[in-house]
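Hi, here's the filled form for the chain we discussed.

Project: internal
Contact: R.S.
Residues: 206
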Amino acid sequence: MPRSMTGFGRADNKNGRFEITVEIRTLNNRYLDISLRLPKSLNSYEYLLKELTKKKILRGKLTAVVTFKSLALDNGDFRLNNETVSFYLQLLEKIKDQTGISDKITLDHLLQFKELIEPEDAVFEDEEVEKILKDVYSTALDNLDAMRKQESDNICEDIFSRLEKIKTTLHSISDKAKETPKIELDKLYNRLQERISKNEVDRDRL
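And the returned structure, exactly as it came back:
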């Protein structure tokens, strides 16, 4: 039975190193249109995920959002953005020269700028990440397909129910159509009888 093209599927997995969440939505579309939203750390898996999608989904506009959280970041994996530090240091020196302020630039001044320290933008390419990502993504696709099938079943059930009502109505119309000529003939006969009894019939027109 054909699948509905609208649906939603979700799956996630969390281990000691990272957490992966996949959410997939589909809308009506004549062809298969895949849009993947991946974190930079998983960009290398874009082709793999698109191929997995093509094996299970034939039509529709599909949007998949993959969220990847490295649990190592919670333990303090951050880096200093050296270019940003240099930029703000030069900016502060320029402000000093223009305003004539003699105070020294301290670490406290630099720490007012949050952009100086940022999380490590690690790239994860190992067998464990690939395996779990494939499993989570495939599960989300399966959940999506199950929802699309359920929606199709609901639509088909509604269509069959409406067809049954139409069929019943047609039978009723057909039965009434068979009775109508006799009813009309009886009405005509009664009117004619009434006129005859009242001498209202023009015998020259009979």
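Let me know if anything looks off before we file it.
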